[in-house]
Structures are given as C-alpha cells and as structure tokens.
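Supplementary Note 3. Input sequence used for the single-chain structure prediction.
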Amino acid sequence: MCEARLNALPQFTTAIDGVDIHFIHVRSPHENALPLIMTHGWPGSVIELLGAIGPLTDPPAHGGSAADAFDLVLPSVLGYGFSGEPAEVGWNPGRTAQAWAELMRRLGYTRYVAQGGDVGAAITDAMGRQAPAGLAGIHMNLLVTALAAPSPRTPTPNAPRPKRWPPSAPAASATSSSKTPGRRPSATPCSIPLSPWPPGCSTTTPTASTRSPAPSPAARPPAA
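The predicted structure, written as discrete structure tokens, is reproduced below.
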C-alpha cells in the first residue's frame, strides 16, 4: 500500500554537501500556493506525512479554501528512507537545516515556510534560528526543549557567528508567515540538476520555469 502511494508521487534526489538528499515535491494545482518544507520525525520517514499531501496541496477537495494551499517539499532526513548516509560526523540539526535551505533555493523558492515534529522540529527550529534568505516562518508540533538536548545554534558569549548557506546568501529575519503573492519560482532554474527517484525514472526535473506533472504509478519502477 505504501509502495503504491510513494510510486504515485514525484520523487527526486540531489547531492548537497556530498550527500544524496531524497525528497518528494508536490505542487498545488492552485496559484499562489505557499511553499512549505516539512520534516518527519524519528524513527520515521516521509511516509508519515503522506496523509497530509492531499489536504495541504488541494484544500478545496477536502472542504477547505484554495487560499490555504501549499506547494510541498518533503525531504528524507539523512540516514532515513531513501536519503544517503553521511560519511562524516557533524550532520546535526543545524547542518541539516542549512541543507534544507539550500534545497529550497535550488528549487527556486524565494519565500517559503517550514514545519516539523520530533527530530523534524529540531531541524525546523534550527532553520528559524539561522534565518536563511526566503524563510518567512516556522511551525513545530514539539518544543525543542522537550528533546532534553541543547537547542541548535544557541548563541553563546564571544562565539563566532555561524556560517550561512549558501555563503553568499544575505541574512534575513524570520517574519510573519502571512500569505502574499509572488512565492512561486520565477528566477533562474536550478544550477545543479535534480535526479528523478527511483533511478531510471523519466519524471520531469522541476525547475523554476516548469511545473512537473505528478507521474502515474505505472511510469516509475517499484520502490525498493
């Protein structure tokens, strides 16, 4: 059942910082949908988020309003599901948050929000603290302090400022997540190609100038 549901969705991989990141990318059929990157928990996977795809991308089909629609990006945390395993230590929530911001930049999103629960909440909290360019707001369904671990990227006296990703990205403050027009990609397409997932699939690579139709289950080989 989960295999069929996954096979029906647009899935891709892209290498960030030397590690392959797997993600599901589902665009809303409604204009001015707000881009949203959602991060799953531990020990879980993107499968736990599949039930939210329909209501979030197409609210009218579920009794909601088109004004509340989202374009969804659902990455697999490194070492989980279809993402690669890091070959070095240091992939903490803060570094993963930087990778997520880079992923959204490659997809061409200039304004987006982030959401996460459990370990995904720690990653989302780190994104809010880092305030990458384009991040308008965050939502968590678990307080990071409840994880009984130091908050990621917590400032300390005389500590050097954390490096931003990408290095040339200007600082930006997380602001209200109120929805305004102009969030869909309209800039230059991704400079680094995104690979269809599973390998060999003919799914169209999403760029800033195209909307990728969701492939049918028959168009991609069975998931491993």
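Residues 169-183, 185-193, 200-222 have pLDDT under 50 and may be disordered. The domain at 2-219 is CATH 3.40.50.1820 (Rossmann fold).
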